[in-house]
């Protein structure tokens, strides 16, 4: 009988994440090999189990899976029960492999990590191929069968030297660790699971009962098939998280990303420095220089008021009581709505006062500073 992860850490099954973390640290201090010189081998095995228990229970997804299959995992091979030998490996058989106790170190020895799981997945792959041979027309759209109807062999687990991904030259599908995890984490078995049928159809007294039997048998097969698929997929995820090849690849990828980010940062800094140098050495050409004095006529009344650039001149609007630097500014101002409103009010006021303007006797070239001449310009 295997030891429960909760028992290894001495915590309740309802323990929180913080409680599990504290319990792991406490047990790790007790069973660390360096602190058990008189029983190094036992302490090493116990310490590995404690680490595995913490890794599983600290991960919400793995903990949920463990809680749902705890009894089956603890049984392992102790209680296989009676079943059809044609079924091959079932979910209960795979539960024992969710533990570091199944291998001895990450090496290629007979009991090593790579050898144990390579043999396991090779056996599973052989069973899948045999199931396909026996039922070639089942599940036509399954991902194990290509468009020509030929069977695609599932990738092997490989060994410690198997590359995780393509580096120097493509070796073909199945030659990489990435191919293995991509296939087995999305496995959809071809096994029929007819051995889980609840009823023997030949015992049906009539066709109505037979249909009911077929319906229940189909449901039982679907449940067993889903459980089998989930078990294999979770086992692949369990191994991927602990696979040294995966960890090495992630470290290389992280290093590569950091180097690429550093190069990009250096490139941007260099470009920025070059732009700053160009800006510092820039000399404006003569043709691009603009005399600010030529821009005076382009400013509006409000802009000139805000900048304080309006000075007294001969171009004066008596209606608005404002001076302008050029005739163009004055003419532009007189066409504005604001000027027209003020002029209209002034006209009404002057007409109310019954004033005589004598428009025809005023000289056209007189100065606009005169009130009479300015008013004449408004109403001519």
Automatic annotation (TrEMBL):
InterPro entries documented for this protein: Chaperone_stress_response (IPR051964), DnaJ_domain (IPR001623), DnaJ_domain_CS (IPR018253), J_dom_sf (IPR036869), Znf_C2H2_jaz (IPR022755), Znf_C2H2_sf (IPR036236), Znf_C2H2_type (IPR013087), ZUO1-like_ZHD (IPR054076)
- MF GO annotations: zinc ion binding
The record's section on PANTHER family has: DNAJ HOMOLOG SUBFAMILY C MEMBER 21 (PTHR44029)
The record's region (Disordered) falls at 128-160
Species for this entry: Absidia repens
Q: Which domain of life is it from?
A: Eukaryota
What UniProt keywords apply to this chain's record, in alphabetical order? Coiled coil, Metal-binding, Zinc, Zinc-finger
Q: Kindly list the GO CC terms recorded for this protein.
A: cytoplasm
Coiled coil feature spans: 246-283
**Annotated SUPFAM superfamilies:** beta-beta-alpha zinc fingers (SSF57667), Chaperone J-domain (SSF46565)
Pfam families named among the record's database cross-references: DnaJ (PF00226), zf-C2H2_jaz (PF12171), ZUO1-like_ZHD (PF21884)
Q: What is this protein called?
A: J domain-containing protein
Domain J, first and last residues per copy: 4-70
Bias kind Polar residues: ranges: 148-160
